[in-house]
Design brief:
globular; 12 strands; 11 helices; alpha+beta; two-stranded antiparallel ribbon; 4-stranded mixed sheet
């Protein structure tokens, strides 16, 4: 999805002409086909740990499908663009069903109605929603490697704002922020920093011994940069500037940004000092890229790489999907009255179905979408 967003950004910034865009379109189309065929779940989240419904991946996927649709319109692929928008709308409508948990013990503990979870399993037999399932937690002993999806949160949820799917002042986002800060925020000498998710085991042990397959997750400067982008999207420029200073304060004496910073008491014998780089990877180029993007966003007074397509379609126009989908990685068992059921398969098929207890029977053949999927819409 990210290469599609890069092409779209280059096009909107005037760095690609019409000829170059048409030359890149076959690549964009193949990338969109990959997203369509493999989404909405991801085989591996951005932390390279778990598969399932990830808020970060969902945000990037949906934004990329809308961006590809706009590019498709420009190169005269209107039919393909229409299907990509339909898919984006369908996935966007399902986000809360997939990754929003409400009325849980954690919600009551923090005093909120609900929150977006870190990741939810791709399919749960007889579950009301994926958040009722369990997710594996890497870098922990085997006997503590499973958690309920509804009990694990992450700053990844801020991607829903960063990529324009949800407004910064959406009550669900604001409640999620309260949960994230209650569980993951760490105040350090340079400023606040956040852990990846509660229960993370990727980091030094409590005594400072190096990570050896298990440990304690430490705060990531990258996430301070991402939180600054959220604050800017929320209209809090002063807050974003303060977080920029914190992010820069986590750098080494050589101005390198680390993967993680130490959040325990000083351990001089292990060269670990509170708020300073831990023994993790340094430089983390990902964090440096976020720093550069934050500088650009502050200069522009807005999140410079936020796709306009998502903001316009979902926040301004309020577009909703008329479909509910069934596919092999999303075996929905119920749908809202009035929705059309869209079956999506990798191969041609015929749907043999009834809506009145088999008193009448219909056979509906699938049709190709041009993106490697075959669909049948059942009223």
């Amino acid at each position: 999805a990210f290469p599609i967003l890069l092409v779209d950004l280059l096009w909107r910034e005037g760095a690609l002409g019409d000829h170059e865009l048409r030359r890149f379109w076959p690549m964009v189309r193949r990338a969109a086909a990959f997203v369509v065929q493999n989404g909405p779940v991801t085989g591996q989240d951005r932390w390279e740990e778990d598969g399932g419904f990830s808020p970060f991946t969902l945000a990037v996927e949906i934004a990329a499908l809308l961006a590809a649709a706009d590019l498709g319109d420009h190169v005269d692929d209107a039919a393909g663009a229409g299907y990509l928008r339909e898919t984006a709308d369908l996935w966007n409508d399902h986000i809360e069903r997939w990754i929003y948990a409400a009325g849980t013990p954690l919600a009551r503990e923090v005093g909120v109605d609900g929150y977006y979870v870190r990741i939810a399993p791709p399919d749960v037999a007889d579950g009301a929603s994926p958040v009722d399932g369990f997710v594996p937690i890497k870098n922990r002993p085997p006997d503590r490697s499973l958690e309920r999806a509804a009990s694990v949160v992450s700053p990844d949820a801020l991607a829903l704002v960063r990529f324009g799917l949800r407004a910064a002042d959406d009550p669900r986002i604001r409640d999620t922020l309260k949960v994230i800060d209650a569980l993951l925020k760490v105040d350090l000498p340079a400023g606040p920093c956040w852990r990846r998710y509660n229960g993370d085991g990727y980091g030094e042990h409590e005594d400072g011994a190096p990570f050896d397959g298990t440990g304690i997750g430490r705060p990531w400067p990258l996430l301070t940069g991402e939180r600054a982008h959220y604050e800017l999207a929320a209209g809090n420029r002063a807050g974003a500037e303060a977080l920029l200073r914190a992010l820069e304060g986590f750098a080494s004496d050589g101005h390198l940004l680390p993967e993680q910073v130490w959040d325990g008491d000083d351990l001089p014998e292990r060269e670990l000092f509170r708020g300073r780089p831990s023994g993790s990877a340094m430089p983390l180029v990902w964090a440096h890229a976020e720093h550069i993007k934050l500088l650009r966003s502050l200069r522009d007074g807005r999140v410079f790489d936020m796709p306009p397509q998502t903001c316009r379609r979902y926040q301004i126009e309020g577009v909703r999907s008329s479909y509910s989908c069934w596919r092999l990685n999303h075996k929905c068992r119920t749908l809202a009255a009035g929705k059309m059921l869209r079956l999506e398969l990798r191969t041609p098929a015929v749907a043999h179905w009834s809506s009145d207890g088999w008193r009448s029977i219909r056979d509906t053949p699938t049709r190709p979408t041009g993106f490697g999927m075959h669909v049948a819409d059942l009223a």
